[in-house]
Amino acid sequence: MQLWWRHNKTDEAEVAHFIHQQLQTLGRQHGYRWMHQKCWMSGIVTDRETVRQLMRLLDGQGVDLRAHGRLRRRVYNSRGPNYVWHIDGYDTLKPYGICMNGCIDGFSRKMIWLEAYKTNNNPRVIAGYFIQAVADNRGCPQRIRIDHGTENTHIAEMQTFFRDTASAECVTLGPSTGNQRIERWWSTLRSQCIQFWMDHFEQLKEDGHFVDTFIDKSLIQFCFQHFIQEELDETVSAWNSHRIRPTHNPRAPSGRPSIMFAAPSLYGVHNFLHPVSEMKLSICQEECLFKDYPCDEDVFQLCVELMAEHNLVMPDDVYEITDLYLRLCELILQGLDLED
């Protein structure tokens, strides 16, 4: 192992360059453990101590700001993977038109899905996330934990349909604040990803480039939604493959979420996945809506036409995307002035 490490360890200057790049965007929210995980995911071979020291050197103020105390939490217990899925919406970017919805497995803490879209209130859209996850996992959980919102009506009915039992036995309803597993994960998502976008969009607002109109929200959705979804996917990938440290709660296993989810026997439990027939799955799919246009269809077509007319392309850098957003705002306002 030492020989492999000596021959494959990445040069420290390259590690520093990677961390510096990450710190220019949402990486400024990461602690050194999360940054170390992203290094490995990007093929950079280094150790945590090197990452910690480089982050202290490159972002000393950020390291100090991230230092905080810990709150005592209620003891949580789940019997095994797919015993309960916790489902909830996340509205921190909703004022800008980006609506998120996620689901986490209670035992392994593996994220089952995390989606950004133009709505998280349509029950048929939320049902689409659920049905896709059921299809991917070839079954449904024993229980789902949701709040009382109307956006969850379809998945509650589908879960009951899949389980062939009373809803009280397979659907747990309660306030979002009591949905412990997913609420805890939202704080991780905010610190590792979403805080950057909150600050970025707030700056657009302070600079007068976002005034909460239908057009502004639609353009945010058109320009940024796919990029944010890519960041969410990356965050989920890092989370599902990172190591959860042991806690004082003996009922909460430690390890990597993806492994705890896939190999429950290693932790002395079994998989509670409930098989779902293709017929039932097909019936429910007909009641779902799946993601299509990132924004209003008319605005989408208008943006595509304007980009073609002015030789604009969709960039892959957040600041270049911001320039595209500002340019499209300008072109649409010019068009409205001409009509007047």
Automatic annotation (TrEMBL):
Domain (Integrase core) ranges: 75-249
GO MF annotation terms: nucleic acid binding
One of the Pfam families matching this protein, by short name: rva_4
PANTHER family the UniProt entry points to: EXPRESSED PROTEIN, PTHR46791:SF14
UniProt-recorded name of the protein: Integrase core domain-containing protein
Species: Anabarilius grahami (Kanglang fish)
